[in-house]
From TrEMBL:
PANTHER family: PEPTIDASE M1A AND M12B, ZINC DEPENDENT METALLOPROTEASE DOMAIN LIPOPROTEIN. The keyword Signal applies. The keyword Transport does not apply. GO terms for molecular function: metallopeptidase activity. Transmembrane segments: none annotated. This is Putative signal peptide protein. Gene3D superfamilies: Collagenase (Catalytic Domain) (3.40.390.10). Residues 40-51 have a biased composition (Acidic residues). Residues 1-21 form the signal peptide. Residues 117-309 form the DUF5117 domain. Residues 435-607 form the EcxA zinc-binding domain.
Amino acid sequence: MNYLKFLFTLIFTISSFNVFADESKDLKQNDNDVKVENTESAEETDSEEDEKVTVESYIEENELDSKPGFLNLLVNKENDDHFLILDTKDLNKEFIYFTYFLDAPQASGQFGGALSDGSILEFRKFKNDIALYKKNTKFIFDDSNNISQSILRNIQEAFLGRFKIEVDDEEASKVLIKVNSIFLSEMLTSISPNIPPEYMEYVDLNVGKLDKSKTFINKIKNYKKNTTVDVVYGFFNPKPRGGSVDAVADKRFTFAKVRHLFVEMPDDKFEPRVADQRVGYFSEKVTNLSSYDYVNAVDLINKWRLIKKDPNAEISEPIEPIVYWVENSTPEEIKPFVVEGIEAWNPAFEKAGFKNAVVAKIQPDDAEWDAGDIQYNVVRWSSSPEPQFSGYGPSIANPKTGELIAADIVQEFNAIKYGYRLRKIWGYDEENDPLRQWIVSLTMHEVGHTLGLRHNFKASWLYDTHEIHDKSVTGKAHISSVMDYDPINIAPEGVQQGNFFPHGPGFYDIWAIQFGYTPNLSSEARKELLAKSSLPQYKYGTDGDAMGSPGYGIDPRAKRYDMSSDPVTYTEQRIEIIHNKISELPEIFGSEGSTYTELRAAYNGFIESKGDFLRVYQD
């Protein structure tokens, strides 16, 4: 055995020696040839340097159409190739990314107006290419602790893609890369609805797989602080399940129009504020893995950067107010109600030390800007075949700090039609108009979300069944927060009608804005403010607490579509009101100009409302 081992070793050694000996011999014999080849290579290099391609010459030669702005994108209109110019100073530089759905079949689980969570991206040099990374911002380390030097962290960032450098212009300190693959795939985010198999039977439309042949970049717009790239993603499912879906022409062939939104990273002068579970704010979670504290994670609330013009004044206008533009898609007669709903938040900000903190403006028809520019927060309207909501208030926040950067509120045209139906059923006058109060309340709710506020489903427990109809007690808000889901408030027979809907900030709303926006909130002032959370008017319970069905949730006060501190009595009164009003519907909608469709919609609305209230009994 040892002999065989020795033999194989000897054979390998001899063979190796011969091979390298032959190579060495050949190299010596061809030494002159090698020198000649090196000379030719040097000449070629000099020639290449003389004719080196620059970014400018490449653009001219390929007739690329430049779209300058935040991201310097270019397009070849003949073959639809898209390119990106990166300054070397832009490498290893963070920017923020969001996905915004412009159009999608709602039956698939997606819808126009939906906004993804934000992430932070970064281009870096990777060998001879450019790479795109998604950073993990959920964890931090304190450099003063030696544990921060550990390489054993078990935290990953995402390596999204690698791109060949088409032009490396060293003199101009720029590189040019082709970026089709970034947008024509699901590299940046998952476009297909992520529906678990066990829930697929509840989905009316399964779009199937991405069809790359029908996926294309539709529009690019560049602005000072952001870039938008609109992409149409085609999908194909040869055998879709279920019946027809009116909103799509053919269930086998569907699409989603998606806006990829790239945003400049704000400066580091924003002062984050740590959240507290007693006040409902959206937040960004950050965990300090070098902290000795048992609880080493903090949530930073989503809030706008408001700075007083006069820092010494008790109440001052901000240097830059939060401005919302009422889009020109808003029906003319509704615009004053939307403006009122936006600016109704100002009394709350006055308690936080700001005057005219929130400003509403009307977009003119000849405006040269559009909602894609994040410098404009917009309240817009949509008219969908089967709307899933009356309003939707998404916002864009810096994932690292919670600073709010932009907002884009979408409200459904169906909500306006609902308001007109309420007028017809319950009547109205200038002082008490259900349409006006409903639009103001809806707008306040969605604006509240874009100010950082979450739902508060305990807000309806503030007043009893008598006080809730008394305006001298309630003022404009008969619940403690417009961030609740509240039904129209109808007084029983013989009781004077109070507010139909809350149309001003409640006690909780004012308190929450104080917590989030009071400048330089000291630890003592913070503690004093939060101590009020035990009072009835500051109670808070959000989506995770809400009792939406029997056995779900632990606190019956946190409930959608209930009303008053005695919801059972209120429900009994409400069901009686519904029964009486249903009997009047044929007369109400029997006048000339009314239709059976209107009557049926009103009837169905009452039945649905009755179901909402009966769930109070179930829970």
